[in-house]
Amino acid sequence: MQKIYLVIASLFLSIQNISADETPDAVVRDSIQLGEVIVTGSRPAVSVNNLPMSITVVGTRQIENRFEPSLLPIITEEVPGLFITSRGIMGYGVSNGSAGGMTIRGIGGSPTGQVLMLIDGHPQYMGLMGHPLADSYQTLMAERVEVVRGPASVLYGSNAMGGVINIITKKQLYDGVKTGVRTMYGSYNTLSTEVNNAVRSGKFNSYVSLSYNHTDGHRLNSNFDQYSGYAKIGYDFNPNWKSFVDLDLTKFDAANPGTEAVPMIDNDAKITRGVTSFSLENSYDRTSGALKFFYNFGTHKINDGYTAGKQPLIERFKSNDRMLGVTFFQTYSFFTGNQTTAGIDYQHIGGHAWNTFLDGRENADIVKKSFNEIAGYLNFQQTFIEKLVFNAGIRVDHHAHTGTEWIPQFGLSYIATGNTVVKGIVSKGFRNPTIREMYMFPPQNPDLEPESLMNYELSASHKMLNKALNLDLSLYYIKGDNSIISVPKSGSAGMIYMNTGEIENYGVEFAARYHINPHLNISANYSWLHMENKVVASPEHKLYAGINYSKDKWSLSTGIQYINNLYTQLANERTKTPELKDSFALWNVRAAYKPVRMVELFAKGENLLAQKYEINAGFPMPRATVFGGVNLNF
Fold this sequence. Notes:
single chain, 634 residues, mainly beta, Maltoporin, Chain A, 22-stranded antiparallel β-barrel, five-stranded mixed sheet, 32 strands, 7% helix, disordered N terminus
């Protein structure tokens, strides 16, 4: 197996396409993608070298060159230590049989409650269920994605105990108008279409995108339909003040086919999710900050379906949820090398869930709850002798039901040379229990307390060959002892959630990228994870490697992702459930040709080795699939 790792790592690698006709926007975005400046690990934009945590940036070119409607398959390949479950050719779905569960270093799960999704820094989890919906995150809106691999609760609070995935939305940087159209069609009657328009005129800028995705699915009753739209309008009052307002909407219908052993009939979900926000930002020589308002909302209609030989259910689950939030932070440099950030976060979280009966009975409430949460934090960063950067932060977070939580963080970054940086961090992550866990469905427990863990990490980065080759290495140890798990209920045959779960994970992550010349780029990433207490959807070994070549009118890229010892089901003596795990290698190829400047023809093949594998137990993934399409840019 070690020989296989070495061969794959030396032969296959992937990064972004470098084309001969670069635009000013592309040049700016490339500088961001190389990791020089990020915003997720620290509220203001800072050099990644000054932050003690491990961060991966997936840039514009990496996103565009994948020809994917969803962001999640792209970051699954590009980010070491991150894994996201899937169940079919398109669509993650909700409720029973759904996918889209996210883990970072073995922390997360399905539904994802321990990894925080953000859009421009705004939390994305549902008010009732407390987790994001994977089908909401489309490439149409993303300029880049920044992933913090490890706790970020000191800045972002609950749900960031395992890490943070922050989608930075698109913005036109230079005056002009750009319009793009993409259409793709392929296996299993899968169609993806998108049209977008970007405008900048002086102080005004806007970005609008609409898309439609459909597939019949590779199994009976696995069809998926989705309509998505994103709009963003910004205005720069002067060089120091700017603002924007945006709206992201997605509506999808997802069908769950059930496991191969127990197929489902009419297990369908109709979901509408939205988020709107307003941001007012300031930036001066010694201070910068922002005031942000956001509102997340959703409506959900679910038919839990039935199995062959059973009768259809006479009720339907429905829910509405909401999250209203306000964030304010300001950073000030009190003296040379200093950056001190103070912030306040407020969130109102809640919703209403009920069953509607088809036989005329009155609706039955399941839950109608809401909570307020308020937090304040202080983050201090100081550079000494231009080489040593000290970071310290503290957050106090008060939840109306679970009480007050203190979250500390300490870190050091040593910039040994212009090419070498060594970092260390000790950080706490936490998560408040959700309304679902406390009140909605068995095994609910209203007396649950917050989860928490401690993360200890060392990392190093080094650049070689005139900075063309970038290497990153991280080692970590995670310890937690109050995770929420389902256990047998005392004196009863039922189950109940309790804060009795333990976490003890440690591992290694490595990433490399090599810009050989303007036409050829290679990269690879690898992660090894050891879990004393196993969880599903967290592979022991994860490797991605590939190569990207472009010249003149042609571009070609190929990549292999290898997954080893992925637990799809854990053993359970009580239910006689066996342990299941899988290993597989996925080979993907993409090619594109530009006959004229405005037209790009592309084709891609996925799982070309026709691997037979499962990520969700009982849900076989599709074998080899092929797609083709066209991009038009005006």
